[in-house]
Amino acid sequence: MPFIEHDPTDMNSFKAYLKQSKRILALCGAGLSASSGLATFRGAGGLWKTHDAMSLATPNAFVKDPSLVWQFYSARRQAAFSAKPNPAHLALAALAVKNSDFITVTQNVDGLSPRAGHPPLQLQPVHGSLSTIKCTSVFCNYIQYDNYDMALTPALAPAPERSSNDAEAAPANIPVSDLPHCPKCTTGLLRPGVVWFGESLPAHVLSEIDEWMEDGPIELCLVIGTTGMVWPAAGYIGQCKEKGARVAIINMEIDDDPMLGGVEYADWLFKGDCAQILPQILE
Ligand code: BV8
Question: What ipTM was predicted for this assembly?
Answer without folding.
Answer: 0.95
